[in-house]
Design brief:
The chain is built from four helices and 13 strands. By secondary structure, the chain is mainly β.
Length: 313
């Protein structure tokens, strides 16, 4: 964990010195941020926690030779960006009230420590994105000690969890392509989107539609940063995913491991607010993910808190 913190701090220091930097973002996912629920009633199961650090810079990076897939910028335009991310995701099985051990047949407890590199090309009416992710599962992901550390901070609000058989250590990867269109409808911006992922980490196809109100008419990183300027916007999204493989549920690829049967179609709803002040942007998003495996019949609610710094361009 100490090494992870040092790497994250190093990325922040390097990004401050980069003239081409667009944004530095720190994000945390957790059902503890379900503020509409009482603290002791928040589920703490399924996708229970995630943290990530992202640094976005100008330029297409490694994908500059893939103009046929992402499209190219017109002469003189700065429409391409590249993002590096470092993160950790934690998944735990559902446990009956008062129990610290999961019942047989539940999803395996699992963790993922990952790095991702994303190239993005923004056109006047669409955004194309290509993403490469590599990671490791099992004990090297540090998921179990991380969860135990945070549960010890507020033991009255976090029930004790004893991890059962978890996914063993294995390297994982995925390649993803997504395309999002931008359609102005008065003060509302509609964003139909679709994409697919392929790899041992995740193999799926997805489609959905997002919205933003009020619409700025331009991309967020193109907005001028005015002294004292404050803006508030509502964001939402609805999508359906056709899932063939999800390592956190399907288990390891190269050897047997605990696993559960996938549901082939999974829905996901997102809604929340973004607040911008000068070069800072804070957001809170609530998510509802449909049942992802056969042993579960109800959706899972979780939320995201994120803070971004976008230097004046």
């Amino acid at each position: 964990m100490r090494r992870l913190c040092l790497v994250a701090a190093g990325l922040c220091l390097l990004s401050r010195a980069a003239r081409a930097q667009r944004a530095v973002t720190v994000q945390a996912d957790n059902d503890a941020f379900n503020f509409w629920q009482m603290p002791w009633a928040r589920p703490d199961e399924e996708y229970t926690s995630g943290v990530r650090l992202a640094v976005e810079r100008d330029g297409a990076g490694w994908s500059r030779r893939l103009g046929w897939a992402l499209g190219r910028c017109a002469n003189g335009q700065q429409c391409a960006s590249h993002t590096f991310e470092l993160g950790q995701d934690i998944y735990t099985a559902s446990r009956p009230k008062g129990w610290s051990v999961a019942l047989p047949g539940e999803r395996p407890d699992a963790g993922l420590l990952w790095m991702a590199s994303t190239s993005r090309v923004a056109h006047p009416g669409a955004i194309n994105e290509l993403r490469l992710t590599i990671g490791v599962t099992g004990k090297p992901s540090l998921a179990e000690p991380m969860q135990r550390m945070f549960h010890d901070i507020a033991p009255r609000l976090n029930r004790p969890i004893t991890w059962g058989p978890q996914m063993p250590a294995e390297p994982v990867f995925s390649v993803a392509f997504d395309r999002r269109r931008l359609i102005a409808a008065g003060s509302l911006e509609l964003q139909p989107h679709g994409g697919a992922s392929l790899g041992t980490l995740l193999t799926e196809a997805r489609a959905g539609i997002g919205l933003r109100y009020p619409s700025s008419g331009v991309l967020s990183w193109q907005l001028p940063r005015k002294a004292g300027a404050v803006s508030l916007e509502f964001a939402g999204d609805a999508q359906v995913r056709g899932v063939a493989r999800n390592a956190m549920l399907s288990g390891t690829f190269f050897r047997p491991s605990p696993s559960v049967a996938l549901r082939p179609l999974v829905s996901e709803l997102t809604a929340g607010l973004r607040l911008q002040w000068r070069s800072l942007e804070a957001s809170w998003l609530a998510h509802q993910t449909g049942a992802e495996h056969r042993g579960r019949t109800r959706p899972h609610d979780w939320s995201t808190l994120a803070l971004s710094w976008r230097p004046t361009r």
